[in-house]
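Q: Got a minute? One more chain.
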Amino acid sequence: MSIRIPQALRGMLKMIDCHKCEHYYVTWDKNFPHGCRAMDFKSLQVPSVVVQSSTHGKDCLLFKQKIKKHQVSDE
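A: Always. Here it is, folded:
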């Protein structure tokens, strides 16, 4: 038995996490707290939501995973 997922919900299941993208930043603008340096915009919503709604459900093509910097211990 398979479960049918409505088309409108399919995009939400695999949404890009902007917090893990190196282009994402938090702005100082309380009206537009989320920003994307790659696409040069600020918004009230997380940029991936804006991109999906503007492109009829397509994911952001500029997502780039942040590289974690290793902490150096003093030992």
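A: The mean pLDDT is 83.
Q: Perfect, thanks.
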